[in-house]
Write a structure and sequence with these properties.
The structure is a homodimer of 446-residue chains.
Chain A lengths: L3 H6 L2 E7 L3 H12 L1 H8 L2 E8 L16 E2 L3 H4 L4 E6 L7 H10 L3 E4 L2 H18 L3 E2 L10 H8 L5 E7 L2 H13 L3 H10 L8 H4 L2 H15 L9 E2 L7 H9 L2 E12 L2 E12 L11 E8 L3 E8 L3 H17 L17 E2 L5 E9 H17 L3 E10 L2 E9 L3 H13 L8 E5 L6 H8 L1
Parallel strand pairs in A: 1-2, 1-4, 2-3, 4-5, 5-6, 8-10, 10-13
Antiparallel strand pairs in A: 7-9, 7-11, 9-10, 11-12, 14-16, 14-17, 15-16
């Protein structure tokens, strides 16, 4: 049963809000501040009778009446007058259970919860379809950038074949600071935490989980498949040092935590990890807490969207624009998604060039250098850029190696390590030199 | 009368196409190539029974049956079975008359015609509203970039206060080539013409008319006002020389033909013209035939969209995505626009820094330099960067001047010219150093 008619008949719409943290407060503030505009453009006055919170006594960053707060989710789910539920509490449970109940009782759901969608998206989607209600989730990926709307509300006569994005603002801020100031990872992280850009426990961001959730969602939408997050090759940024960023720049690259997904004949290539992007790449200049996504499609070519990926207002904006879309558009806001666990293989994305950084004791550095170059040449690879720097009796090497796969390079460096030639953990990062030449191929096939 | 119901009942939709040039051919090719995908996602098979052309005998770049071609627009407008008309013929007449007739006979209209919309948009919009049909025009601005859908189909709880864009691919290609190769304007234009990026008569592009039409459309949508194209301050790129691009780069800028529109308390500031953008500006790295638009809104902040702004497939994509939206969405695809000639003032956009380039005979250069600096200082301005280059007995100067308005600088250079001190026409270009600090201001007001 769709409750569209109910929504339309009553020019006041009652919304239940789950969560009143940063995003929830933002939603309340924006609803208040923009209420005249929303009324003018959608015809609806929005009321929020109930807000689910854990602790009703907690000091809030927004003015709410005590009677609005509740610790009982059923107050919202069972309220027949509430036709839309907004979830900004995060985490899998109890969000999953509450949202399933809300959908099944005929309420539209708007959620910002990337982890929930990445892990249980198809279950929620199915519940929405069965109840004839809509599940909208613009805020779950890249905050203020309307990439979900672009993929699922706009592109229809286009087939997407690749998506690349900077989907995590925290790590982008840290990498930007490290590059600009020479700070270490730990120093830049501490600063990000002070500014509220990083959580006290930064694991989700710096280990790439957050970006992987978002990549799973985008991949599911773009390719109509369900990709388990655990199938995504994932690397964090903790091993990156200022020297890597400096050398990358010397070679004409910048290091970004990139989430990539590409449909190939072999399967779906997916990865989240730090990459070297040439300065000419559309995502190379996306700095600080900004996010960006490039979507490659067969007719329109590549379109890049850049904006704030997190924060109170950009995320609240995405939530509320989902709400205004529900109020303004009488049909489905998004194309019907079919996330099915189809027979696809998940593969690591490929690269033909890698940056490697390794360190040896000074007295062994020459032997090591010669040995590595010899093996690389034997295996058909080539060192196309190289730089080294001596510090504290150790020699640091930074190379760009062409035509060897990652696993070969790791094998090589593991061998050197086993032989006692490396004095620190080496680093291997892919370079993204080729920017989707496939688009021209497909367009010319038309 | 809306013919939505008619469209929905019949799972074949019949479309009339006006024009079969580059974009029209692209539309036909994409409809054919993607028909299975469109059917799968919208439920509709699309037929194009009639295509209006000037010369039915002309060789076409796409396979069409002779019986599809017609020189009689009434074949389309009077055909009761055609519910959607796509116009890609360009120019004001006869497009305006045919589209008004089509709208008034209850057909939805999709157009790529920026000139027509900029000059007669409100008339067409009114006709559409009166007939209960939709007028869609994504392809009219920035080709493959869905900026219309972003402004009018997405942003609802956001108030836009500024738009900046690189909206013309031809001039962006010319400026990119001039900078990268040192070619003159004439050389780069000739190359663009050879590659099909520029028309035989390039006036519309290089004089900024094309960008001004697009800016008028975006301004109308963003600020709900009707802006006459003639009110837009407009400059072309013919006076730009390779030396300007080189000097701009030395000062940390790149020169782009920028279209800007900003709502201020004094009125709407509008301009199209070459500007110096700092390298950190989101539009500074948009090269070749790419287009980009940054939209500044009060909640979400700034969002930049980058993609191909012209060409057969990007433009056809925009046309066809308007078509799929009509088929997929049961309500209005775009928010209701109200282009009204309200009491607003159109003003030139302001800048606090300008690049000036002027040339004098060598023997007079010292006198000129001293005189100009003295007057600039007297008027409260300051030269913050300067460079000069001697060539063929002449001295070329490139300065960045702060705190003087454009008209003062022009006055100054006119005076020097009247005194016989300048040996060539000088150049004055604004620098865009401040990137919308207003967003923070407004967000903090919430």
């Amino acid at each position: 049963m769709s409750n569209e008619t109910a929504v339309k008949a009553n020019k006041t719409v009652r919304v239940g809000l789950l969560g009143l943290g940063t995003v929830g407060s933002g939603v309340m503030k924006v609803l208040l501040h923009q209420q005249a505009l929303i009324k003018e453009r959608t015809g609806y006055r929005i009321e929020v009778p109930h807000i689910l919170v854990r602790d009703p006594k907690k000091k809030r960053k927004v003015k709410v009446f005590p009677e609005q707060l509740t610790t009982d989710a059923d107050r919202i789910v069972d309220d027949q007058d509430i036709s839309i539920v907004i979830e900004v509490m995060g985490g899998v449970e109890p969000a999953r259970t509450i949202l399933l109940k809300a959908l099944r009782s005929g309420k539209h759901v708007i959620t910002a919860n990337k982890e929930l969608l990445a892990k249980h998206g198809s279950e929620l989607m199915k519940a929405a379809q069965e109840s004839g209600v809509q599940l909208l989730f613009e805020a779950s990926v890249a905050g203020g950038i309307p990439v979900i709307r672009f993929l699922q509300g706009y592109l229809t006569a286009n087939r997407v074949y690749e998506i690349s994005g900077i989907l995590n603002g925290t790590t982008n801020y840290i990498l930007t600071k490290m590059e600009q100031t020479g700070q270490t990872f730990a120093e830049a992280l501490a600063e990000a935490q002070e500014l509220g850009y990083a959580e006290a426990d930064p694991t989700d961001d710096v280990e790439g989980y957050d970006a992987a959730y978002k990549l799973a969602i985008l991949t599911n939408l773009a390719f109509d498949v369900e990709v388990p997050v655990s199938d995504i090759f994932r690397e964090g940024i903790k091993e990156i040092r200022p020297i890597d960023l400096g050398w990358a720049r010397e070679f004409g690259y910048v290091i970004k935590l990139l989430a990539r997904s590409r449909k190939t004949e072999r399967g779906i290539e997916l990865s989240v990890g730090p990459c070297l992007l040439p300065l000419s790449h559309p995502l190379a200049r996306v700095h600080d807490v900004f996010n960006a996504v490039t979507v490659y499609s067969d007719v329109v070519g590549d379109v890049t969207l850049v904006g704030k990926g997190a924060g109170e207002y950009p995320t609240a904006s995405a939530v509320i624009e989902d709400l205004t879309a529900l109020l303004r558009q009488s049909g489905q806001v998004l194309r019907t998604t079919c996330w099915q666990t189809s027979s696809h293989r998940c593969l690591e994305t490929e690269s033909s060039r890698f940056f490697i950084r390794f360190t040896s004791a000074e007295q062994e550095s020459q032997q090591l250098e010669q040995q590595l170059k010899r093996v690389i040449a034997e295996w058909g690879g080539r060192v196309i850029h190289q730089v080294k720097k001596e510090a504290l009796g150790k020699e640091n090497f930074g190379w760009i190696v062409q035509n060897l796969p990652r696993k070969r390079l790791i094998e090589l460096l593991d061998q050197a390590s086993a032989n006692g030639l490396l004095s620190q953990q080496p680093l291997v990062l892919p370079c993204l030199d080729q920017v989707a030449t496939q688009s021209r191929k497909l367009a010319s096939a038309i």
